[in-house]
Amino acid sequence: MVTDAEEVSPTASSSELEQEDDDDDCYLSDQEDDALEESVLQVLEDERDEDCHWSSTSVCPPTIHRFILVVFVVRVPIASVVDGFLRLQVITKESLLAAQREDLRKVMELLGLREHHARTLLIHYRWDVERIFELLDQKGRDRLFSEAGIPLQPANNAGSPSSTEVTCNVCYDDVPLSDASKMDCGHNYCNECWTGYFIVKINEGQSRRIKCMAPKCNTICDEAIVRKLVNAKRPDIAERFERFLLESYIEDNDTVKWCPSTPHCGNAIRVKGDIHCEVECTCGRQFCFNCSSEAHSPCSCVMWELWIKKCRDESETVNWITVNTKPCPKCHKPVEKNGGCNLVASGYAVVLLAEITHGQSKKTEQARRNLYRYMHYHNRYKAHTDSLKQEAKLKGDIQGKISISENKDSKIKDYSWVINGLNRLFRSRRVLSYSYPFAFYMFGDEIFKDEMTSDERELKQNLFEDQQQQLEFNVERLSGFLERDFQNFSDDEVMDTMKHVINLSNVVDRLCKQMYQCIENDLLYPLRTPHNIAPYKSKGLDRASELNVCWDSSEQGLQPIKYSQDEHKSQPGLSGSSIFGKRQLGSSSNNNGRPHKRERNDAHGGAALFDLNVPAEVADKI
């Protein structure tokens, strides 16, 4: 709620007013910045001896000092730098091969493998390069390869000098060596049997992991042999085999998902970081990366799946009750009129009706209460969803109002605050609408029945609903100010409207942050059952950028394109530090799947601590 203390001067400019939106960042004056820089240099100077060598008692080498001492000097939020640098990338049909080859080359170079062995290893471990190197250190090379179906000692393909034929153990025919093929495991069968076996496996959808025909042999067949034999007999199936191998980078990869747009845009999104996020494809489709459904934060994916199913199952019941019943003015229960006049008399008939209604079995009464509770949350969810659709139509109207206002003879020419306020309204309205399905399951018995006592549930529900009501009140106020016909206002009236829109935009943004902190820290974190939600972003959903093609897709081999040293710094996927660095930068869950407890934002600012895991390329730009 906006208080008098939060109101700003109507004479302030739009740019000055919008600075309140960045109240989480901390900046130093030029004098303080220079003083801090001198103190840092003095500390580094004190740790060198007269020969300009670093003292043996120095706690940290000079390369570490810049990470530890760079505090309060950050000019932009580090999270935004990391997000824009390595978070989201769009993989198109043209860049899919390049993205796959990038990971293949990392494994081939560091483990000394052939291409099909590297692909087998990556598919088995779901294209997680970092996990492969972690397991290599934990399990060892032999166990890592055997579990993935890679032979430890590839068989010698050269046949016996005295033998010119081989007996196929499938059809038991003696065939020339040239008409037989041997896999890395050493098993040798005729090409006719291999071809039939490969075609069956491809048609069954097992193209990515075709095992050897030998009993109890887990070795994955050489894709070059599969490609050669199948292409000779069925080129169409060979083409399907190639497509399956290419698409395995998306189908078997936890960090890459197809865009769920309809009709399909052909793009996929790759996330380097926490998979519990909401993204926007270049086609404009917004979706939850974890479950590929529509963006539904602050609902968890489990809650949203249950909510969609319940809405589908209960829709006919709710529609019938809405159309055919009216609430009783005394007990507010739905009453069906199945005959007689429209008059409902009071007295004995009402008492008798109440006795009959309330005297039914506990099971029926509980089912009725559950239905009423669902209708309560569903009606509010639908009301805000409908409001969001109606407010989306405001964008065209507001553009017309801005055009009229800019052409007026007025001192006010900057109307960016209107667009910013409208975008803030859309984001906060979306958060508000999905908060009702979250509350339905958070404080119900479907998921967390045994994880909270009745008193704890009531206390947490009151805490959440208080924040929800504050957000709802200010969202409606913001919507009302944006619907005003400000193109007909005087300058003073426009300034007053601008003041309220900017103030309310900041207020609803802060309330959204507080609601998410309450959900993550006070509601979800203490639970035994892990439920992760996508974090709140003041600037909206993360927008994916086009993947820069690093490899020449016209080449058959995995040869990198030559580029300059500056261009190499802009390719984080090729640096060694990105392979062995921290996994899932910015993740909202720990290794056990439990959500981290997010730090609360200090309303008065504070130290902007430098993330020690940020690559040096990013640090140099800050």
From TrEMBL:
Transmembrane segments: none annotated. SUPFAM superfamilies: RING/U-box. It catalyses: [E2 ubiquitin-conjugating enzyme]-S-ubiquitinyl-L-cysteine + [acceptor protein]-L-lysine = [E2 ubiquitin-conjugating enzyme]-L-cysteine + [acceptor protein]-N(6)-ubiquitinyl-L-lysine. PROSITE patterns: TRIAD, ZF_RING_2. Keywords: Metal-binding, Repeat, Transferase, Ubl conjugation pathway, Zinc, Zinc-finger. Residues 1-28, 564-610 are annotated as: Disordered. Pathway: Protein modification; protein ubiquitination. One of its GO terms (molecular function) is ubiquitin protein ligase activity. Might act as an E3 ubiquitin-protein ligase, or as part of E3 complex, which accepts ubiquitin from specific E2 ubiquitin-conjugating enzymes and then transfers it to substrates. Belongs to the RBR family. Ariadne subfamily. This is RBR-type E3 ubiquitin transferase. It comes from Oryza barthii.
